[in-house]
Amino acid sequence: MASYDLVVIGTGPGGYVCAIRAAQLGMKVAVVEKNATLGGTCLNVGCMPSKALLHASEMFEEAGHSFAKMGVSVPAPKLDLPAMMNFKQQGIDGNVKGVEFLMKKNKIDVLKGTGKILGAGKVEVTSDGKSETVETKNIVIATGSDIARLKGIEIDEKRIVSSTGALSLEKVPEKLLIIGAGVIGLELGSVWRRLGADVMVVEFLDRILPGMDGEVAKQFQRMLEKQGFVFKLGTKVTAVDTSGKTLQAKVEPAAGGAAETIEADVVLVCIGRVPYTEGLGLKDAGVALDNRGRVEIDAHFSTNVKGIYAIGDVVAGPMLAHKAEDEGVACAEIIAGQAGHVNYDVIPGVVYTTPEVSSVGKTEEDLKQAGVAYTVGKFPFTANGRSKVNQTTDGFVKVLADAKTDRVLGVHIVGIEAGEMIHEACVLMEFGGSAEDLARTCHAHPTRSEAIKEAALAVGKRAIHM
């Protein structure tokens, strides 16, 4: 029987990063992966392929609508969807091979098959009907999440699709109906809208992007509507009739009322994700779950069973790849007797649409609910020199600071490259910095990032360019 210091079940961003850090710390490590390729949802059917299609569709739209005004004359672009899908696949293959290389480099054994915990110290790996059991001092559950399903609406990944199917449609749908106005729905809606689909988004709540700053969500919704998105908020889809040539979705107000029928070629179900614990044997192993099916852990990622830990989407917290990675590193360090730690107050979130939306820390709604006195500094990209000359002026930066101490509590950005710009706010907040610290930090000119400095200046009512 093979024996290890650590066995990690799942090789998504949390799992493979945890395994690498543990190997760096001198442990003998194995990972268990049930899929043909490493990298989990993120690399194979999530973050990475969606970013490839977002980029490619953005270039398609730029060529069709923006080049001429910059003095670049090109023929009208033609969509070659199979070639675009091949571009996406090349990106997936490159990343997956990169993870395989990292496993070899760090001398981590890859056990192909489905992992089942037989109890503390034992993991059974089953592949093609054959099972082997390995011994290990520690186990980390990093099995991630799965798509959430709507009762009565069967996903076939052809006409009624999840995010997985929406990344591999064989043709551009004329009418795309998206159920759920969260990050994934808006990103995938952006892809197919740019490629020619009419996009309607139905959301149960009365707003898009639940959990994001309310002002940001409102302004961003207006930008998407200008791009052609149609939103039906406070609305639910109760059924989808698949018997005809086109899909017929029954839609009614969330609070109850008269139903209407919406026709669509493709329906994308995007109502969130749920922890994936199927087949892990957690009940028999005595591992406790919470009332939402997540693995319960303490502050050190330990479950109620000694030697069994859990990280990433399978535990509480935002279902974000970078949160899982940080937890993987911290968990490995704790197992090695070090002081691993994750600061959950400084985990950025990004919506990779055009423009992008990024956020870190508290929203205005969070601060009001907690009764925290705060000051706001805002600066629009219409007043930013670089954005003006590039004619990309949609959006703004908002900085929220403690009214007494000036410590930055949250930063929210809507604009081109917002996902790249948020990180100076993350570094500042990680070190407990103030709006004054940010305002007095020299920023290169002309850059979009100057808008962050100006928003920090605006906290003290002294923005220069506004």
Brief overview:
With 466 residues, this protein is an alpha/beta fold. The chain is built from 14 helices and 22 strands.
Features:
466 residues; alpha/beta; FAD/NAD(P)-binding domain; Enolase-like, domain 1; 3 domains; seven-stranded mixed beta sheet; 14 helices; 22 strands; 33% helix; 26% strand
Query: Can you tell me the number of structural domains?
Result: 3
Largest sheet: 7 strands, mixed
Shape: globular
The CATH superfamily label of the largest domain reads FAD/NAD(P)-binding domain
Cα distance spanning the termini: 69 Å
Tell me what portion of residues adopts beta-strand conformation: 25-35%
Give me the Rg, rounded: 24 Å
CATH topology of the largest domain: FAD/NAD(P)-binding domain
Say how many strands there are. 22
What's the average pLDDT?
Answer: 98
Second-tier CATH architecture of the largest domain: 3-Layer(bba) Sandwich
Q: Which consecutive residue ranges, at least 5 long each, have pLDDT under 50? A: none
Helix content: 25-40%
> What's the CATH first level of the largest domain?
Alpha Beta
Counting DSSP H or I runs of 4 or more residues, the number of helices is: 14
Which structural class do you get from the secondary structure elements? alpha/beta
Report on the architecture of this protein:
The chain contains 14 helices and 22 strands. With 466 residues, the protein is an alpha/beta fold. Strand 18 (349-351) and strand 19 (356-361) form a beta hairpin. The longest helix has 25 residues, at 81-105. The mean pLDDT is 98.
